[in-house]
Design a protein that fits this description.
Helix 1 packs antiparallel against helix 2, helix 1 runs parallel beside helix 3 and helix 2 runs antiparallel to helix 3. The protein is built from 18 helices and 17 strands. It is of the alpha+beta class. The termini are far apart. Helix content is about 55%, strand content about 20%. It is elongated. The protein folds into 5 domains: about 150 residues, Tetratricopeptide repeat domain (Serine Threonine Protein Phosphatase 5, Tetratricopeptide repeat), CATH 1.25.40.10; about 100 residues, PAS domain (Beta-Lactamase, 2-Layer Sandwich), CATH 3.30.450.20; about 120 residues, Beta-Lactamase (2-Layer Sandwich); about 100 residues, no CATH class; about 150 residues, Histidine kinase-like ATPase, C-terminal domain (Heat Shock Protein 90). A hairpin with a 2-residue loop joins strand 9 and strand 10. The strands form 4 sheets. Strands 2-1-5-4-3 form a 5-stranded antiparallel beta sheet. A 5-stranded antiparallel beta sheet has the order 7-6-10-9-8, with helices on both faces.
Length: about 700
């Protein structure tokens, strides 16, 4: 009993002593932690964040041991700022979370925050005092420790047997639990590391640009490699930007109400999908398909944006839209009554001519067409319906019909073709061509050849009489009044008209199909040739007087040369004459009258042919050659025509452009060809020069001013 009381007294004494020491040590540690906090803060404020970490982490351990919430609050605040300043956002986020938790505890327990910095002992002085105190504490601690050892020996002697088994069991259980938790912790760490590595791999290998933004400032906090490549920026450059730094000025502002609405919808879980015009570092614009959402990343809400380049798709859409509008414009402005229907039989396009003639039929089907307005009988209505059905079945329709419009009977040629895609009919395209005038002119055309020939013969005889009277006075003074010898200038159009009429007659005799389009084309050409004859007759005075109004257009010189050559080439080749043609590509246009330029070239080619024939009349094996070339020179377009004919004597060159001046035999020419050509060249503000060596060659160089774009 006595021994038990002694033991209890010793134990009680030891407990009281231990508590005193613990209290003293606790107070001492708390002061030490305050000193460490002050030191760490000063290091951070001086910009030495790395040096501030060690004392603050040591202070954190002491504050945790003493459970000093105020100290922990200060420590977590400083550590969060330091890690954030160092760019370690994950660690900073962890300490801010701890700070939030500590602040809640302080509020719940109503602990007074802070401390008096003036009462905090400086760290160096604290260490000096601590050395002295530790010596004293060491003596006291040694006494207590000795007592504790004695008590422990006695205590363990009595208790060891009874508790040995119990303690061993507890230790085993604790060890197993710790080992199990350690394994689980390792597995969890490995799992998170794998997931983090997988995320980083997917993040950086994605073929889409990925941006992570601060949800409040819209500042970029992370990007993947694809974004850097797409925008032509380094990662560091992108991390200093916001959304508007990478966007076209036409896009919505980050501060706009629409942007705020987007963020609100994303916070509610919606994924926003928009097309966005983006801006590269080099200033070029391109389109991206944007998918944006708000998600938790490292414990914080972030704006996550996935951007896919759709620039080519956008360009294709724009081109498609332009093509569609262009098609609509073309159809609308066609000089024909034209319409198009979709697969359901509804009219979707209509030319202005068609609208003026039939009224606006957009959106109408066959049964809605205004047949009654044009006195269309049932027979024609059924025929028209059959045309549409046949076209939808893949057939091409080419037929005629007549109706009453404003009390006048009109004739039309209708053409309907199927519109196909991948072999399937997706609509039809129809045209109605007014051939009323063509019908009326068909009969006139039959008599046109004889009447035209008589008219030309009478005019030529009349001009010849005038020329014969005026030649005796003065060739130059009466050039505008004389027209002798122009028959050779108009034989070409007369011959073409004759050939065309003969061709039509032959087709009609053989019952060959003659389309209205073919007839219209021929008639238009006939009138062109008639107009050409009139211009040739009127043009006899070009050299000496102003001309009547003529039409000037852009002229493709190569086309005119080719057309002129086609009218005389066969005739020349039949005479054994070869051609050397060299036409420059992408030749600039010139301004003038296409027909008259063709007339000039024909005259020069005709003269070249005559010169060659005159030289080689008895020389069969000699090579007869006409060379024609076109090329740009300075700001001009040159037409060069050379023949290896008889040549022109030097004394005659200065006279060759005078009316009626000729070195040919009377039955070979009248001398009007070159004079007329010279007048045309002057009209077009062009120049002509002649080079010739008798018996060797003659070259005509025509120089025209090139049109600038």
């Amino acid at each position: 009993m006595h021994a038990g009381k002694v033991i209890r007294s010793i134990v009680l004494f030891l407990l009281v002593s231990f508590l005193c020491v613990d209290f003293v040590l606790s107070e001492e540690n708390s002061s030490f932690a305050d000193s460490l906090i002050i030191f760490g803060r000063s290091q951070f404020e001086q910009g030495r964040s790395t040096q501030a970490l060690s004392p603050l982490l040591k202070a954190e351990r002491i504050a945790k041991e003493t459970n000093n919430l105020n100290q922990l609050k200060q420590i977590y605040t400083l550590l969060g700022l330091i890690y954030e300043d160092e760019g370690e956002f994950r660690e900073a986020s962890e300490y801010y979370k701890k700070l939030s938790s500590i602040s809640e505890k302080i509020a719940q327990h109503k602990i007074e925050a802070g401390y008096d910095a003036d009462n905090v002992i400086p760290l160096k002085e604290y260490y000096e005092r601590l050395k002295v105190k530790r010596k004293n504490d060491l003596i006291l601690f040694s006494i207590i420790l000795l007592s504790l050892i004695i008590t422990a020996i006695v205590f363990f002697i009595f208790q060891s047997r009874r508790k040995k088994h119990q303690i061993g069991s507890i230790i085993d259980n604790q060890t197993k639990d710790l080992e199990k938790k350690n394994v689980e912790l390792k597995n969890e760490i490995q799992k998170r590391l794998r997931e983090e590595e997988k995320f980083k791999t997917l993040f950086n290998t994605s073929t889409q640009s990925i941006f992570i933004h601060d949800i409040k400032t819209l500042q970029i906090v992370d990007v993947n490699d694809c974004a850097c490549e797409t925008y032509g920026c380094t990662r560091e450059e992108l991390l200093s930007m916001r959304i508007d730094d990478l966007s076209s000025s036409s896009m919505i502002s980050p501060h706009s109400q629409q942007t705020k609405d987007f963020i609100k919808r994303m916070k509610e879980g919606e994924i926003i999908n928009v097309e966005w015009e983006a801006l590269r570092a080099d200033g070029t614009l391109f389109w991206q398909d944007i998918h944006a959402k708000i998600d938790l990343i490292d414990g914080q809400e972030r704006l996550l944006i996935f951007a896919r380049n759709i620039d080519e798709k956008k360009k294709f859409q724009n081109e498609l839209e332009k093509s569609k509008k262009l098609l609509q414009t073309i159809i609308l402005n066609l000089p024909l009554a034209c319409y198009a229907c979709d697969i359901d039989g509804q009219i979707i396009l209509q030319s202005q001519v068609s609208i003026d003639r039939w009224g606006n039929m957009i959106g109408k089907s066959f049964d809605d067409l205004p047949f009654d307005n044009f006195a269309v009988n049932n027979t024609l209505k059924q025929k028209w319906k059959m045309w549409w059905e046949s076209a939808y079945n893949g057939q091409k329709i080419n037929d005629e019909y007549s109706i009453q419009i404003d009390g006048v009977k009109k004739y039309f040629n209708t053409r309907i073709i199927p519109l196909k895609e991948k072999g399937y009919t997706i609509g039809i395209l129809g045209m109605d061509i007014d051939i009323t005038d063509l019908k009326k002119n068909e009969m006139k055309l039959m008599n046109l050849k004889d009447d035209l020939q008589d008219m030309v013969d009478d005019e030529v005889k009349k001009r010849k009489i005038q020329q014969e009277l005026l030649v005796q006075k003065s060739k130059l003074e009466s050039l505008g009044q004389l027209a002798a010898g122009i028959a050779h200038e108009i034989n070409q159009p007369i011959g073409l008209i004759s050939l065309g009429i003969d061709n039509i007659n032959e087709r009609m005799k053989s019952n060959q199909e003659i389309s209205h389009e073919y007839l219209r084309e021929k008639i238009n050409k006939f009138f062109t040739y008639i107009e050409r004859i009139r211009q040739i007759i009127d043009h006899i005075g070009t050299f000496s007087r102003d001309q009547k109004d003529i039409t000037y257009d852009e002229i493709d010189v190569n086309t005119v040369v080719t057309e002129a050559l086609s009218m005389i080439r066969t005739q020349c080749e039949n005479q054994g004459i070869n051609f050397n043609i060299s036409l420059a590509e992408q030749l600039p246009f010139i301004l003038g009258n296409k027909f008259k330029l063709e007339q000039v070239i024909l005259n020069l080619l005709s003269n070249a042919r005559d010169a060659i024939e005159q030289k080689f009349v008895n020389e069969v094996n000699e090579k007869k050659l006409i060379s024609i070339s076109t090329y740009p020179k300075d700001k001009n377009v040159i037409i060069k025509i050379t023949d290896n004919g008889i040549g022109i004597p030097k004394k005659d060159i200065e006279h060759i452009f005078e009316p009626f001046y000729t070195t040919k035999e009377p039955d070979k020419g009248t001398g009007l060809g070159l004079s007329v050509s010279y007048g045309i060249i002057e009209e077009m503000k062009a120049e002509v020069d002649v080079e010739s060596k008798p018996g060797i060659y003659t070259t005509f160089n025509l120089k025209f001013k090139a049109l600038t774009k």
